[in-house]
Known about the structure:
Layout (H helix, E strand, L loop, with lengths): L5 E11 L4 E11 L5 H14 L4 E3 L11 E4 L5 E7 L4 H10 E8 L2 H11 L9 E5 L2 H8 L5 E9 L2 E5 L4 E4 L2 E4 L4
Parallel strand pairs: 1-8, 5-6, 6-7
Antiparallel strand pairs: 1-2, 3-4, 4-5, 7-11, 8-9, 9-10
Helix pairs in contact: 1-4
Amino acid sequence: MALGATIYKIELHVADVGRHYYESHALRVARHPSETAQRMFARLIAFALHADEHLTFTRGISQADEPDIWRKDLTGAIDLWIEVGLPTSTRILKACGLSEQVVVYCYSDQGSKLWWDSCSNELQRAKNLTVISLPGQVLEALAEQTERSMVIHVNIEDNELFVCTEHSQLSLAPVVWREPAR
Length: 182
C-alpha cells in the first residue's frame, strides 16, 4: 500500500514591510512521502514571499499539471505560478504560457547552480520568469526543527527574511538569478 502525505498544521505570520502586508495564515501543508522537510520549508518561504488571500498550495508533486503554489484571479486564470526545486525548462516554458508570472525557487546550493547553468540559455525567451535561489543551509536548519504543528513568523525587509520558530531565529537572503525584463 502506498504511503499517504503527512499533514502539517502551520500558523504562518507574515510581516512584509516592502509590500505593507501583515497577515496570519492558518495553513495545512501536505508533505508528499518523497518530499524532504527542506523542500517543504522552501515552499513555505515561497508562500511567505508572495502571501496574499488568494495564494494557495496545490497538489504539487502528485499533480504534474499544477505548480507547488499558485494564485488565480476571479475568472480562474493563473496570475502567479510558483515552482520549487529544479523543474525542466520544458515545464517552465509551459508554465510561462499559462500564467502571467512564473517564479522558480531553487534551494540545493550546488545542484541549483548546475541546473541554472544548464537551462538558463533556453529560458531567455521567457519574458515573465523569475528565478530565485534560497540558501540550502538555512532551509536545512529549519528542516531539523520540523514538527507536525508549528508557529512560524516571517519578517521580510530589504530582500532579507527573518524566520522565527519556537526553537530558533534565522536570517535568509534569497538571491535573484533572473528577473523579467521591464
